[in-house]
Amino acid sequence: EAGVTQFPSHSVIEKGQTVTLRCDPISGHDNLYWYRRVMGKEIKFLLHFVKESKQDESGMPNNRFLAERTGGTYSTLKVQPAELEDSGVYFCASSQFRDENNEQFFGPGTRLTVL
Amino acid sequence: GNSVTQMEGPVTLSEEAFLTINCTYTATGYPSLFWYVQYPGEGLQLLLKATKADDKGSNKGFEATYRKETTSFHLEKGSVQVSDSAVYFCALMPHAGKSTFGDGTTLTVKP
Questions:
Q1: Residue B82, exposed/middle/buried by CB under 10 A (0-12, 13-18, 19+)?
Q2: In chain B, what residues touch A33 (CB-CB under 8 Å)?
Q3: B22-32 per-position pLDDT tens digit
């Protein structure tokens, strides 16, 4: 079974540009989460989809970030325009809807560098 | 809200030394507790987990016990190897919700 995949693995852009990150969850997982780790600090929650609906987007830092999950399969996270402080590693995770152990499976992450 | 406090790093040990990385948490309800590991150049991998009080999670020689009375989930390994060098994250996850992570502890094991 394929795990969570993310694309690209690394992105380097200039301040003011736009970047779109993609996450493909494990097939059949209704829950999809985005997290990020900035400046070597803790991994922080960004948002949570259940299928195509945003269940919780309380962690989204500002309106420069837009997440979508059309059709309830893969998800994209767009940053527009990117700022220096957006640099970090963006992780995606997925889990089954009714997993009592709530284990989330993480992707390898996308390392974003904004110059 | 929920929070996780992890032992500050970095931690440097010699091969075969004993490892403890402290983790304490505050949470409402009864979350599951996890340790994740990130090896150099790789993504997050689940190392071990415990879903209720007094459960012990174990994997690859690592252990952690869910202590409700001390709200702790300390990670231990009796004899570390160079290949254990990585960043370790303690995390708590309530049922079907967002995870809360600690800051991560960087472990370097020297031969």
A1: exposed
A2: 98-99
A3: 999 998 888 89
